[in-house]
Sequence to fold (312 residues):
Amino acid sequence: MTSATIERLRAVDRVVLLGANGWFGRTMVDLLEEAYGDDLAARTELYARGGHRLSSSARRDLRVSPLSELGSLSAQPATLLVDCAYPTQEQVTALGPEAYVEVVGELREQRRAALEQLRPAAFVSLSSGAAKLFTDGLPMAERTQVYGEMKWLDERQMLELCPELGVRLCIARVYAASGPHMTKASSYALGDLIEQARAGGAIEIRAPHRVMRSYTLAADTLELAVLASLGSAPERPELFETGGEQVDLAELARRVSLVVRGEEPELLLAEPDGSADDVYLGDPVRITQLAEMHGLALTDLDEQILRTAENG
Fold:
């Protein structure tokens, strides 16, 4: 994290973090710990769907309150609200579309209530490239359709509400992420390839069609979103999409093997079935502009792989 980010965070009286126990939530705790050190617990309030204790990367014991207690927030000035709370796309299948929509609707209302009560100086929210897929009307699986529509509705809510409340807003649309705290690693292409590389032997590419991805370190995404939100104006919300070097899975597997075990891999490629390419890439223009504006060097792909593998 840059010294500029640390200074900006230290100038914030209090940070409220929603979804503290997930991948991006834990990553945000790391950033806050770097900025606040022993004052971490005193300067932050952490929330997740269920209340529990959380041990930070430096083994600080932190209380995580249930999201249902958001109504007890007391308004204080110069507060940063960071929202990483969201049921994953897999939960559409696990819960069923109707139940999933109901859960997301409850979160949406909790978020609205928190914004109206807290009136933070700035608000950071994580969205998904699935929201863009939905608005583009592209063919997609049902769970992606439901997930993308819910993310799009959340974006609309925040883009309308935050200017009304005078809250500076940054929305980060995440496409493909990397870094420590990856949950259910085998369900992500990068995590699966790292696990295969660690196991030794050939690396299998199971997709019967071309898959293209572009990775951004989770910590970079959050750091840039924090800087962008604190540097924006309420009437001009910021929205950027994650993006970096574009690779197909075969090239990603090769890079993973070189980083994890220092050798070119033997690749086992699935037989092509004629299905359409899976291209899921964010537009890197705005994130690149913001990174240059705030003096943040985005982490390159090989370093992203290394950090994910070392801390996964």
